[in-house]
Amino acid sequence: MTKQDPSEPILLDDLNSRSSLHNSQQSEEDDLEREFQEITVALNEPDGSLSGLTTDEAITKLVDTASEVLNEYNTRTTRTEHFVKYITSFAPLSTIVAALCLLAFYIYGTLKSSPHQFRLIGTIVEVGILVAIFIWNAFIHRRDLKLRGREVRDRVKGVIAELETIRVHPNQELKIPSIPSVSTVRVIRSGIVRTIPSNLIVKGDLIEMVYGDIAPCKVLCMLSRHRIEHPDSPLHSHGSHINVHHLDPRYRDYSSGTSPHVREFFLKRRETFQPSLFGMPPTEGMQRMHTDLQGRYTFEVLETPLERILHVALDPTPRPKSLMKNQLLITNKIIFVKVFLSIAVLAFFINLLRYILKEVVQLKHGSNGVEQLLALPVYAALPLLPLSIPTLLQISKAYTNAVILVLFNTLQISKTEYEDEKDVDEFDVEAPPPTKNVTIESKEVWKRFWRLLTRWGNSGQDFDDGLTRSTNLVESLGGITVICSIDKEGTIATAFPAIEQVLVATEDDDTVVLDVLEDAYLPNGLRFEDKDWENYIQSLKPIGLNQLLNTNCGTLSAPRRKEPHRKCNTLHYNSRTRAAQQTCLCRLGKEIGFTKEALYPFVLQKEIMCFHPYLPMPPMTFGKLVNYEIPTMLSTIYRDQNSEGYMVLTDGHVECVVECCMDYWDGTKLHELDESMLKKISDFYQTAVVNDLQCIAYAYRPISIDTGDNALELDPSTSEFITLPVRILPDADEKPGDNVEKSSVQQAEEDKQTEGEEGERSQRLTNTQRIDMRDLPDPINIVIEVEGVSDTDEDDFQHYPSSLDEAGASASKGESGPLQRWRKLREMDMEMPYDDEEDIEPPAAVGTKEFYEEAVQGQIFLGMTTLAHQPKTNVCDFIEDLGLAGIRFVYFSPASERESKAFADRLGLETDWNSCILLSSASDPYGASSGYLESYDIKAQLPRGIENIRPHLESVDDIPLHVSLFAECGAEAATEMIKIFQDYGEVVCCIGSSLNINNIAAFARADISIGMEPIRMGSGPESKSAFSLGAKINSLPCGLTMHSETSLYALTQVVREARRLLNSQRQGIVFMIASFMSISLLLLVSYCFLTPPAMTGYQILWLMWIIVPLLILSFFFSPHEPDTMTMMPSKNISPLRDLPRFIFYFLARFTLPVGMCVFVFLYCLQVYDGAEGYHFLFNSFGNGTPWLEWTDSEQWALLYAQNLTMVIWVWYMVCLSSTFMSRTLSMIKFMPWKNRVWIGASVGSLVLQFVFCVVSLYRGPHRIDAISWWVFLLAFVWPVVFLPAQEVVKARDLKECVRAQKLAKLEFNTKLGMHSPL
């Protein structure tokens, strides 16, 4: 059999001697990361068949697989289809039509004008600009499609490149805990066992699996590798589910080769490796094989998990469109299509009417028809074409994404604490979540902005830049309505559970439960909540001694560790254990009062790993057994150098430990482990499991041997593997003894005979185990310090017989759980016959397997501890603050309902009625038989099973959308539930472990996903380690990745910033559309006054591409609004509502500015044309001269009027922009001048417009001072008139928003449904 990598955790106790304690310098980092060391491994196969693939072979297969999958997703055809669809859409076609109309006017004007009209130069420039804009927008769209389609592909290319580099970097993190959120596998590469992420194995790899492991993909166990063949195979066992091999697809027969009768067994992906794979109950051959292999079976990998992962990550099915995207689509459909056509048609008919009535009927010439019927409608509708929007969106997205990415990275690096703002009361229930006061480097933001803006191909930093396009990073973060957690350990809860309770026996044959609380401010990081805990110090001492001796965390010599950490021993390498057995509880031992000096005399002699793989695990009465677990325990033999005595310290699974105990310790003496105490232990155990707690039981046993020539010689450098025997229990209705009814005389004789047999049996056990209780030291006689006081208590050690009183051993019908099994086992022990002394086996030789098997029996039960995965720091407050922000936190739990509710209660989630839905199928053997679940503690009628969620939503109520807890939920059910959320308008953020191979589908489905490191891997962002690479592979669809130490408050702060940026972007778009519509309105009004256009085409394009974008981009630098994180986000179902109300707002806010612009234009036309009075307004500019026959003076007069009108319009837009930075807050509460960038943009816009005006009028014949001063004064102070109107409109909008927010909060907090209590 292959040996394990020596870097795997082995219990080489650092307490072997005082010198080893003083010399040990183990650090915290060493507990989570050790560098890989090459060793030579001896193979048990002479031909080296278990050497597996080499590292180069495996990496080559991974690279080839990734490259093949990548080539399948060449989306060029799809991109071409999208591109053709875009250029044939309304906006590009309208741009071409507008250019053609202007080109026709230019050609006609060039041919018909007399004298030459220099203003036609502007027309041909406009044509060229429109053509350039069409090409530019097409290029931007094609580029965006390409980058959006290749974001994940570029990440895959980065993974392939990193796979190549990992050949030279064989480092790997070890001591990874066996928790559901971390998918690891022990693979044999070049004969060396390495622990790597499950997604890095390939077809043809050999992996080691132990009972309880979950298959990462389809695997094959070939028993020929272990020399187990048909004649001695467990396949002949009755009850095996694979007796008829030709009907079972999970194995196959081979009729050729050296072993024609060898059979092979398959495990499907996500199938748990259990002893039942080989048939139950096991045969002797199967048990021998398990012991010889030490529980480690070799499987051949039949498929490459990376292939499936890449297919899911590269799935071309797009995520749902963001709310902003849908709003833009609706805006494009309404504003840029319907309103555009309306304006164009209206302008055409106005000019058609003018052309017929004035030009044809009154003036008797029709040369103005081409300009009035083609050019003027184009000018009026031109502002409503989305010409600059694609570019502005690219710029705004690049900047906002850069801000979010830099902020997120800064929050993860910064060591400052999250604090409430100065003006916020931390006890206010409506207070926003705390933030971390960090400074974002503007240089880094602009650097990231430029990289995102100009990126074309693979930048080489894809994970660092996030999936900004395919996930719509800022839009998704700012619009989150649901945050789903699909993992517990290491993400929202600690990777290692913390101790909660300690159960010990008391002197009155009862038990007491002592509560333990985590307290980071104390030296040991925890404390006993009960003030009288010292009264039970004698019961706590042996447990504390066990916890300090049976660990190798190094905390006795290294600085104190206040957080839960891993307990290192080889037990976890030979069996999959729960996180509680992997957690070091040295902190509790120190809190009890142990010091280093108290541990010096104890020297490790042997480590015994005990496994009980064939222990029947009946389904508990409280629900479904989700996590399959093989009961295990670790027993260590220590020698006390002071007394030269030996003792066994044991901790492990409750069922395993209790089965090996015959007595219990109450702090003063030993008692028989009778039925009463067994019932208390069983009740406590089952109650703990129901409440999502994990239990560890502790036991002790003194052993004594002769110290003569045959002194105990044990090798502490190796561990002993023991498989506890299979014990078949009698049926519940059958008593272990004789079924024939006996007379009272016969019963009395048997009782008398039994007493004699019990004495012989007790003597036999004592002789066999070679124990002399009288020579043993007091197991509790250990110098400890409790609050500085040293005490030494000496108690008489009593030994009780190994037999139990048969009177209390009868099992009651209807009982379930471990109690019934323990009672039956004791009944079987009492019924064990002993005919004569010849049957008594001689004592086992020291150091033999029989010696160790006997050493772990007949132990003394000391007590139990319960551990639970506690929510990470700030997680509960984080969830509470999410509710205030209108974001629902949803936890998908794989556990049963009660266990899930127990953990949800720790999180602060609601656990009463309407609070939990089971997503397991209704056909589940442990579940209900119908589609609805009438739960014992829920009065509402809730759907059962993921397949019944949609029918319930369609025909009953929407309760499933308001529930925060889903139990018995698998990976597929979680993914489908996320899709249901999205179909009903929720914007879903999925957070989960980046090392969980089952999370890839949920990550790819959610609007935005965040991959969290469940453990501290000790690797930086440029690490080339296997676990860093495995995390990247699982996080391919994730927009962001989070370190294990990062607080979830980083997410709320990023959401807060995203909301600010999103609100700024939304307000900028609204202002841009309104300003463009004001240009169209201005032109339409000028047409109604029968004048030439107030602005020509190139002037409109100047405003659309330079002035307005400069103002709206400054919105991104606005400060936070105080209610940013207390507003309810909009759902992604009604992108644009109350359109008439917003049209009214537009008219109310822009009528006065547009009216003054029209007045200035008309006045300037009058002044520069030299006309007197106002009769010309409804006559003809230029005394009725055809427009193509204007003189230079008349053309300059129009140009002067247009430029001065532009200056006034820009001034008004600057003033109006100050009111658009906040949708509802007045300028008094939200002061725009706090935005210094906006001040600079405003000044810059005015300066640029003045420069534009000067350049346009540089050679003009007129003077600006020809316009009366009062016109300029009136125009420039006009904002004093229309700014109050802005405040009035915003106040009314505020009332509507407050009303909508109240309704949204009422809906968010309402869970009333069918049959719900009122």
TrEMBL record:
Pfam families, alphabetized: Cation_ATPase_C (PF00689)
Where is the protein localized?
A: Membrane
Where is each Cation-transporting P-type ATPase C-terminal domain found?
1093-1291
Q: Mind telling me which InterPro entries this protein's record contains?
A: ATPase_P-typ_cation-transptr_C, ATPase_P-typ_cyto_dom_N, ATPase_P-typ_TM_dom_sf, HAD-like_sf, HAD_sf, TMEM94
- SUPFAM superfamilies assigned to the protein according to its UniProt record, in alphabetical order: Calcium ATPase, transmembrane domain M, HAD-like, Metal cation-transporting ATPase, ATP-binding domain N
Tell me which stretches of the chain form a coiled coil: none
Q: Where is the signal peptide?
A: none
Annotated spans, Disordered = 1-30, 728-772, 789-818
A molecular function GO annotation = nucleotide binding
| Keyword line | Membrane, Transmembrane, Transmembrane helix
Q: Does the keyword Zinc-finger apply?
A: no
Q: Where in the sequence does UniProt note compositional bias of the Basic and acidic residues kind?
A: 730-741, 749-763
Which superkingdom? Eukaryota
Classify the main location.
membrane
Residues passing through the membrane, by range: 86-108, 120-140, 334-353, 1069-1090, 1102-1121, 1142-1168, 1196-1216, 1237-1260, 1266-1285
Segments of skewed composition (Polar residues): 17-26
Q: Cellular component per GO?
A: membrane
Has keyword Membrane? yes
Spell out the protein name for this chain: Cation-transporting P-type ATPase C-terminal domain-containing protein
